């Protein structure tokens, strides 16, 4: 029943996580969580107590515990390309899938390793300022690659 946002307030050098009431906009909790530059460009509800986030500046996927109000696991410096915005999804294999300017990748929910699922190949426009990855009604995964709509068919 709360909204979670990341923000950087004027004069602060850290990323702040803020919980907001969707009913009245009141700030319920707000603390500096990541002492670094950059931004959180993607969130994914992990179910129960966990929210996954992607800190693009360090190419780090992390698990944030809502009850503990802290990062409880992270996979740092995933070297799979420049990460796209709003591009984390529940993969069909139970892992977290993400999108970069070079590939679609998968990470187990324990955040132990990263695997390239589908390289975008030589026809990729290599542009990371793209948004979104989603499940289609046909069961495939869809995302934009420049002016192209890409599809990964799931068997």
Strand order of the largest sheet: 4-5-6-7
**DSSP summary, beta strand count:** 14
Question: Roughly what fraction of the amino acids lie in strands?
Answer: over 45%
Distance N to C terminus: 36 Å
**Helix and strand run:** EEEEEEEEEEEEEE
Fraction of residues in H or I helices: under 10%
The total of helices stands at: 0
| Gross morphology | globular
Describe the structure.
- With about 160 residues, the protein is an all-beta fold.
- Helices cover about 0% and strands about 50% of the residues.
- It contains no helices and 14 strands.
- The strands form four sheets. Strands 4-5-6-7 form a four-stranded antiparallel beta sheet, with no helix packed on it. Strands 8-9-10-11 form a four-stranded antiparallel beta sheet, with no helix packed on it. Strands 1-2-3 form a three-stranded antiparallel beta sheet, with no helix packed on it.
- The N and C termini lie far apart (about 35 Å).
- About 25% of the residues are buried.
- The model has no long low-confidence stretch (mean pLDDT about 90).
Topology readout:
Elements: E1 3-7, E2 15-20, E3 27-34, E4 40-45, E5 50-55, E6 60-65, E7 70-75, E8 83-90, E9 96-100, E10 103-107, E11 115-119, E12 133-135, E13 141-145, E14 148-152
Which descriptors would you attach to this protein?
0% helix; 155 residues; mainly beta; four-stranded antiparallel beta sheet; globular; 14 strands; single chain
Summarize the structure.
Helices cover 0% and strands 51% of the residues. The chain is mainly beta and 155 residues long.
